[in-house]
Amino acid sequence: MATYQFQTEVNQLLKLIIHSMYSNKDIFLREIVSNASDALDKLNYLTVSDASYKNVKTDPRIDITFEDSDKVKILTVKDSGIGMDEADLNNNLGTIARSGTKAFIERIAEDKNAGESNLIGQFGVGFYSAFMAAKEINVITRKAGSDKIFKWTSDGTNSYSIEELGADSELAKKYGFDAADSHGSAIEMHLNDDSKEYASRWKIEELIKRYSDHIAFPIYLHYTQNKYDDKGNVTGSENKIDQVNSASALWKRSKSELKAEDYNDFYKTISHDSTDPLHYVHTHAEGTQEYTTLFYVPQNAPFDMYQADYQSGVKLYVKRVFITDDDRELLPSYLRFVRGIIDSEDLPLNVSREILQQNRILDAIKKASVKKLLSEFKKMGEDADKARAVEEGKRTDEEKASIEKWVKFVKNFNRPMKEGLYSDYANREEISEIVRFKSTDESGTGDDKWTSFADYVSRMKSEQKSIYYITGTDEANLRASPLLEAYKKKGFEVLIMADDIDDIVIPSLMKYKDYDLKAVNRAGSDDELGVDKDEAKKKEEAFKPVQEKIKKALGDRVKDVVLSKRLSDSPSCVVVDENDPGLQMERMMKAMGQTGIGVKPILEINGDHAIVKSLESTTDESRIANVSEVLLDQALLISGAELKNPNEFVKAMNALLA
Ligand code: ADP
Ligand code: MG
Predict the structure, then answer these.
(1) Lesser CB count within 10 Å: N end or C end of the chain?
(2) Sequence-ordered list of residues with C-beta below 8 angstroms from that of 517, at least 6 positions apart, any chain
(3) Is there a binding annotation on residue 31?
């Protein structure tokens, strides 16, 4: 027998679990049963796709037994699935592989309030959750195709042990792993004093019905029942076995016979989420292709959605046989928050994962699924907008709910949807009806006042031809930007874009319908501000001497120095050239360890401002240098950029103040 230490993160997780951060202990059974079902799925798949498993005999089932004596309370879940060898046991029941999960555990381990916020409820705590109810767990297991039997044991504190069992050992015989061709795992949970109630027929039946009814394999509950004579006296007992789940694939049932509650329960079994989904859409397609899809949008963004090894939540089935859930391509990456099921009647069962990637049938299903989801999201937004048009006090409950739903959607999923603007060219138009933005007009949806492109257009001034936006890192900063002054004066609305991807995504979009999208922090976005051309020319001529002085003082730190048409209160601002990458992009590249492209800003000067006017008459080189320095640095600061030499700025400032 060998003893091993748990990986640090497993220890952290165990501590969190045992100190009952998780408010609902019952879910451990769901987790253990879902693992049993996964193990059966895996074996099923291998027997149809891998020649070396062709001869493995399968009898997919889950058996639950319990021992309820004065001395011991034991609950055991046994499956006839893939089983585990020694390496599997070490990899699967001793470590946590996914970096997203690790990072998440670190975060809640440090968060003193994690218990109340129920953060841990946001992800499936998995196998280890069984330590909420058990003081000791034994896993007796035999991998399909192998004749070795192992026992894994732990009390959930720091370490676990693994030993090989002989086929003639008592435990091997107890679970039938002594038989040739046997395989699977038995999870034996020795219940702790606070969890004795789980060694009971009624409790188990209730939990399976509630959480695991739609597991696709039969779940049998073994129990003993007393026998009685005519007078009601106990005369003996008999062993009984009942199937306690309906084992029907919920998604195959017709929509009309399913209630919202059925959909919600099923969502919880496949997602490990403890909250109801925000939205679901169930489709049966018939005709050239026959398939079923059932998709869910969660209420909260998956905690590890932005991690590189994020696992998508969509499972692929063929004729109800599970094929894979690690195909990242089932839905495009920007829809990675969607969970659910795709079940095809037309794909061959023995399809390999490689072949799947270029499969025409699957391609068509994916395309249709994306279209369906996008049209649902669009409708969700339209419903909310319609409801919002109703006077606040007069809204029906349904209208209120549709606004609330949409606000949640935008809050959690607007950011990935924006990725779609960039990555899903074919659906760009549809997606641009779904994404929402902050704006200088604040009549949008919800607390956060979101607006759509369509809304923006409906409010546009009749003479206005472009949609204006400003990009940066901080919303408050952007709202205070001097660049907005002239647009405000004209009554032109400006979209406020503070997401780090806006600078990449929005310029690539270029247009919404017939309207050009123009960044006010770029050159070429001031054409519409209605400046008299002759007068502008005159002003530019008059500005030339000052312009030359500033240009000379700043040298190659700026791409150009120009007279601004849009500043009224502030002395200066910076913009980037029309075709240069944004300052935001530059920052992102640096954050990724790249040198950046060296984007130089264009400095726009307010010719009417007193500080600028003061340059007209002076020839004092050091004063010109200081004023120029301050004009550039303050504009950079306000734009959210970092100063390369803050001390130069302070020096210049002090010199001017003196
Ligand atoms: P998850 O199911 O999300 O992978 P769990 O913590 O529930 O995480 O389980 C960890 C791993 O242990 C599983 O991925 C699987 O490889 C293995 N495992 C757990 N239970 C079983 C089982 N009954 N049969 C085979 N493997 C299992
Ligand atoms: Mg699991």
Answers:
(1) C
(2) 466, 467, 469, 506, 507, 509, 510, 511
(3) yes
What is the Å distance from ligand 2's center to 127 Cα?
A: 6
Ligand 1 touching residue 81 (CB < 6 A) = yes
Number of Cβ within 10 Å of residue 538's Cβ equals 11
Please indicate whether residue 195, judged by its CB atom, sits closer than 6 Å to ligand 1. no
Whether 2-243 shares its CATH topology with 533-657 is answered no
Residue 517 and residue 553 in contact, taking contact as beta carbons nearer than 8 Å: no
Q: Can you give the residue ranges of every domain in the chain?
A: 2-243, 249-435, 533-657
What is the domain class of 249-435 according to CATH? alpha beta
CATH class of 2-243: alpha beta
pLDDT tens digit string along 364-400? 999 999 999 999 999 999 999 999 889 989 999 999 9
pLDDT (tens digit per residue) in 111-126? 766 554 555 555 667 8
What CA–CA distance (Å, rounded) separates 515 from 614?
A: 41
Ligand 2 centroid to residue 29 C-alpha, Å: 11
CA 482 vs CA 12, 26, 526, 609: distances in Å: 49, 57, 14, 13
533-657 is classed CATH 3.40.50.620: no
pLDDT in tens, 329-340: 789 999 999 999
Give the residue among 264, 300, 329, 274 at the shortest CA–CA distance from 413.
Answer: 300
